[in-house]
Structure formats: structure tokens, C-alpha cells
Design goal:
By secondary structure, the protein is mostly helical. The protein contains 14 helices and two strands, in the order αββααααααααααααα. The protein has helices at 2-10, 23-29, 34-46, 50-62, 68-81, 85-98, 105-121, 125-138, 146-161, 166-179, 184-197, 202-216, 220-232, 236-248, and strands spanning 16-18, 21-22. The protein has a two-stranded antiparallel ribbon with strand order 1-2. The N and C termini lie far apart (71 Å).
């Protein structure tokens, strides 16, 4: 193991100094296979040591394991951790574009889901819809990551609502709630979409908003978003009603900058 590290330092990037003298040959002679290095990568990644993890994955790949997308996805996690949004976005897009060499199917799903969510946040609705549909399609049945799958359906529905694909969106919002009945933002988004589709759905919107608040408790972010939604719909009476409810439930007033509404 140490001899391989020495070759890596002497002959970067992959430790191939000359024929017969390389990190790979040293590790093979020591009976260290790609599984050993990939597991080291997993441990480092789960401990938040993303650059170290990427280096371990690269060694596993040098020994014959395809980990192209996993390495780039790990770099995305690193750029995200240090809040370099543009590099994170580029790495995530590249990992999804290559879409080969995933250590786990859940990593693959999360990459597609997060890329679709990023596109949705940037209002690239059509591409977001395609990416999120793919994410849902490849979600591994053997994993119970219901929270992320529910959110994938929510962002898919949001992208469809923004393209006036209301019937499809309604089905996917309901699917998000069915998967995770405690998904607060699914109720909020579903409520907004119902009103946008048809203003006569105001009672259904109200019901969905109240369900969201029942789950959210005193979270000012949720209250603020719902009050802003009523204002956006020019439903001043409803906005005032929710402001009064917020005060009654002890929500931090300074967080509700829309209240009181004249």
C-alpha cells in the first residue's frame, strides 16, 4: 500500500513511472483490489472527506472498476460543501451526462434527482421535467429513500405546472403526498397549483395550505410562503386571515413581513 502511495507521489497523476513500476502493480502484488479502495472511498465520503474519497475511487478505477460518474458526483459533493454553486452544478451535470460508473444505484438516483431539482430552481422547466422523470424511473426499489423520491415527484409536478401541464402535475403532486404524507412543501405546492389551474379551487387550496401548516407548526418559512401565495393570488382577505392565525399560534412576527396586510 505505501509503495503504491510512493509511486503516486513520484509519478503523478496515476503513479505509472515506467513499465513494471507503478502504483497499480504495487497494489496488485500486495493483493489489494479495487473493492478495497472503493470501500475506502465510501468510508471517506460518509465522513464528509470528499476529496479524499474521490482519490480512493480513482485508485479503484485505476485497478479496473468503472467509477467515472461516482468520482464526478463526489466532486459535486465537495463543491457543494464549500458553497461553490457553479462548479457544483457543472460537476453534477457532467456526472449525469456520463451516467456510467456508479458505485450504487442510489447515488445514481440522487444525482439525477438533484440535477432535475437544480434545473427546476433555475426555471429550466422542460429539461427539469425530463431529468426528474428519469430519476423516478431509476429509483432503486430495494432502497427506502421515500423522502427524496417524494420530492422528485413534487419538483416534477412543479415543472409541469409551469408548462401548463396541469393534469399530469396534479397526479404527481398527489403521488408526492402519497409517498410521504408529511411532506410539508408538497401540500404547499399542490395548493398553489390547484389555484393556478382554476381559481374556483380556492377552497381546496385553503385545505391544502392548512394541512401544510398543521405539519409545519411554527415554522415561519412555511407561513411566510403561504401568506405570500395568497397575496400573489390577490386574495387579501385570505392573507389577513392567515396572518391572524400566525399571530395566534405564536409565529415570530418579524419573520412575517407581509403582515399585517392593509
Amino acid at each position: 500500500l505505501e509503495l503504491g502511495f510512493a509511486f503516486e507521489k513520484l509519478c503523478p497523476p496515476f503513479g505509472d513511472c515506467s513499465e513494471g513500476y507503478s502504483a497499480v502493480n504495487a497494489w496488485k502484488e500486495g493483493k489489494l483490489d479495487n473493492f478495497y479502495f472503493s470501500q475506502k472511498g465510501e468510508t471517506a465520503r460518509h465522513n464528509g472527506k470528499f476529496l479524499e474519497a474521490a482519490a480512493w475511487y480513482q485508485r479503484a478505477q485505476n485497478l479496473g472498476m468503472d467509477l467515472h460518474s461516482t468520482i464526478i458526483y463526489t466532486e459535486y459533493l465537495y463543491w457543494t460543501a464549500i458553497q461553490d454553486g457553479e462548479r457544483a452544478k457543472n460537476a453534477l451535470a457532467k456526472a449525469v451526462e456520463i451516467d456510467s460508473g456508479w458505485f450504487s444505484e442510489m447515488d445514481r438516483f440522487l444525482a439525477w434527482y438533484r440535477y432535475g431539482r437544480l434545473l427546476s430552481d433555475r426555471d429550466d422547466w422542460q429539461l427539469a421535467e425530463e431529468i426528474l422523470q428519469k430519476a423516478i424511473e431509476i429509483h432503486p426499489e430495494s432502497h427506502n429513500n421515500i423522502g427524496s423520491l417524494s420530492e422528485a415527484y413534487r419538483f416534477l409536478a412543479r415543472s409541469q405546472t409551469s408548462q401548463n401541464k396541469h393534469e399530469q402535475a396534479m397526479l404527481n403532486y398527489q403521488k408526492a403526498i402519497d409517498l410521504n404524507p408529511r411532506n410539508v412543501w408538497a401540500y404547499v405546492s399542490f395548493g398553489r397549483a390547484m389555484y393556478i389551474m382554476d381559481v374556483s379551487n380556492i377552497d381546496l387550496t385553503d385545505k391544502l395550505f392548512l394541512q401544510a401548516l398543521d405539519l409545519a407548526g411554527n415554522d415561519p418559512l412555511v407561513w411566510r410562503n403561504i401568506i405570500w401565495s395568497w397575496l400573489d393570488f390577490n386574495q387579501i382577505q385570505q392573507a389577513n386571515r392567515y396572518c391572524d392565525l400566525a399571530f395566534q399560534f405564536g409565529v415570530e412576527i418579524e419573520e412575517l413581513f407581509q403582515c399585517p396586510v392593509e
